[in-house]
Every structure is written in structure tokens, then in C-alpha cells.
Amino acid sequence: MSSSPAEAFDVDAFRRTLGAFATGVAIVAAEADDGSLVGMTMSSFNSVSLDPPLVLFSVARSALCLPALKSARAFGISVLAQHQQELSTRFSRARGEKWAGVSHLRGAHGAPLVMDAAAHLECVPHALHDGGDHEIFIARVLEHRAQASDPLIFHAGRYRSLSAAH
């Protein structure tokens, strides 16, 4: 099941193994120091603690928006709804006009939030940790809200949808 130390670690196989874990999809966004908006699609988003209310997300060290996220004063996390697959794809790209034509609002703490998302969380930085080729952000939740909506799901390299219980 696992490789021995003498065997080379197969990164592609590891990625496929991790892909067996279905995740929701979110957009993490912030305002950069120059006032522009940054954002990226995120499937590495999790709850950490209820007291205090903490969540985490991780960002590749190679991500173009990493410096802006590291200096952000607030984060807007929009948990995408099933109908927002196009937004997920758009915000997963490194470059481009991600925000052009995207309906969004500013949360009470200034971070951008995508309209019609299944849930919104407004957060402030709490801690930053080394995560190998990623930086792990822990954020304190200040505001949150959810609406009845089916979430966008990602599993085994594809978008999926939930099926009704039988």
C-alpha cells in the first residue's frame, strides 16, 4: 500500500489518492495592498475550531496571489453552489480578469464575497504555518451566513453533484 523509502514517491499517484476525498469548493478572496481584488478557487478549506471560530485554507507557494493574501487584513470565503462551476474554473486560473462581470459584494470587514454562493464567511488572519509547498492560513471567522443551496463538489478530478438520499 505504501512505498518503501527506497522507492521513489509517486506524486501523481498521491494526487489521485487524495482525489478520493470529495470536497466542497470555495473562493477565497481579499483586497490587495493596492486596492485590487484577488481570489482563488480553493478545495483545501476546513473548519478548525468552534471556540474560537477558526477555519483554514492552504495556498501554494507558487500562487501569484500569495503575497496579497499574506498581507490581507480580511478574507472573504464564498462556498460555491452547484450552479457556480464556471466561477470555480475561472478563479482556478493563475491569470486573467477573474472579477470581470462577477457579481460580488464587500463584507462588513471589506473582503469581497461572491454573490449567490451557498455560504459566506468573513474572516481575519489568525495564524500562518509552513505546509511544505503550501502556506497554511488559519483565519478567525467574524461573520457567517448560509442559504439553502446544493454545494459544488469536487471528486476524482471532476465536479460532481449530490444525489438525493434513497
TrEMBL record:
Name of one Pfam family that matches: Flavin_Reduct
Keyword Oxidoreductase appears in the UniProt entry: yes
Coiled-coil residue spans: none
Sequence ranges assigned to domain Flavin reductase like in this UniProt record: 18-161
InterPro entries on file: Flavin_Rdtase-like_dom, NADH-dep_flavin_reductase, Split_barrel_FMN-bd
SMART domains found in the cross-reference section: Flavin_Reduct (SM00903)
UniProt KW keywords: Oxidoreductase
GO molecular function terms noted in the UniProt entry: FMN binding; riboflavin reductase (NADPH) activity
Assigned protein family: Belongs to the non-flavoprotein flavin reductase family.
Name of the molecule in the record: Flavin reductase family protein
Taxonomic classification: Bacteria, Pseudomonadati, Pseudomonadota, Alphaproteobacteria, Hyphomicrobiales
